[in-house]
Amino acid sequence: MPKNKADIAKSSSSSSADTVILDLGSYNAKLGLASNEAPKVLPNCIFKAKSEKKRQFISSQLSECKDQHQLFHMYPFSNGILTTWELEERILDYFFSDEVLNVNPKDCNLIVTEPCFNFQSIKRLFTEAVFEEYEFESAFICPPAYLSSQLFRTQNPLEPTCLVVDSGHSATHIVPVIEGAIAWHGVIRVPVGGKVITNHLKQRITFQQISVNEETQVINQIKELACFISTDLKADFRLAGDELSPLTRSCGLPDYVHHFDGYMRAVEETFERPADHEQLIRLTADRFVAPEILFRPSIIGDVRMGVAEAVADSIRRFSQETQLYLFRNIVLTGGCCLFPGFLERLKQEVGPEVPEFGEVEVIRLGDPLTTAWFGGKALAENTAFFEKMRVTRAEYQEKGESACEGKFVRPNCK
């Protein structure tokens, strides 16, 4: 179990120059020091297992659970919003302990993300914990899309304006960043993300093949391995109708002897009989119908906009000159952007909305899962800018919450 906060402070050997970068996603957290080459990607979750009722597994401790059948997940986030601070605090204790980062918060700066539209009460608790409980030397709090825009600006110094499409586990946020500042009137939240896709896939498999309603973790793994975004729905539906469709994939459930995770068979083994230890499911049309929810929420009865519509709607809220910059600098971040075909489909659907003489360009800055974290690293390395943006513990102790106004990137800040 993680140590208490006093133990965390005593057990560390980090220097005052360290900056902890923490991108808190609703499914995974990306964390590390600015001096690290890459972040750790760990579950932002606490697990209970049916096989070990007396113990809870915090984040990566799940690897110590021998039988992960019928896991119960406790997420601090709900629908893309941090709602249960007590759970997040336990996870943060673990992240800062010697089992993971092994840092002394008192000697560190912190760059940490929060959802675009979080409850004011949670924001207050979050800020208080940063300065009063963990006692970081200084901190900067912002949405992950802002950090992604910082990485874009670092790599494209002549392009100060971009549109960040942050499609994660619980929701998708469309965030225009104009001249380095979030234009809040253009931010749109689409309540569709990886969780909805996983749940839909579970329902389809349970209805058509075998019951997997209690195997969220496994179906999420299979979704990540097998699903893709169609760039030609009519053609893919025709292919899916063939008895031996080239789109069909066989996926296996873990037996916790030969396989400990969900897996996908090699393409050439798709139609071979299962081995004695294998329990297989076959996916064809569901491989692209489930993630199609991102672009057509009406599949699950939601009448709100899909991702491409939201992108176009957000951009139309600006002058034509600004629109041209936004259309040509659409930056993808978040786990759902890893679906094969996502970039091409978004460009395909947004293209007709571009004003005359404009162009649409959709960009990945490396791995969309860690784009925000690397944006935090770029921010930390821009020492002069970071000095202006951060709030020190001394400033917070003197001015309280008002010290954060105008610095932390929040809807009520300019």
Automatic annotation (TrEMBL):
Main localization category: cytoplasm
Keyword terms, alphabetized: Cytoplasm
Domain of life according to the entry: Eukaryota
Annotated Pfam families: Actin
Position of the signal peptide: none
Record's subcellular location: Cytoplasm
GO cellular component terms listed in the entry, alphabetical order: cytoplasm; nucleus
Xref: InterPro entries: Actin, ATPase_NBD
Coiled coil ranges: none
Record PANTHER family: ACTIN
Family: Belongs to the actin family. ARP6 subfamily.
Protein name per the record: Actin-related protein 6
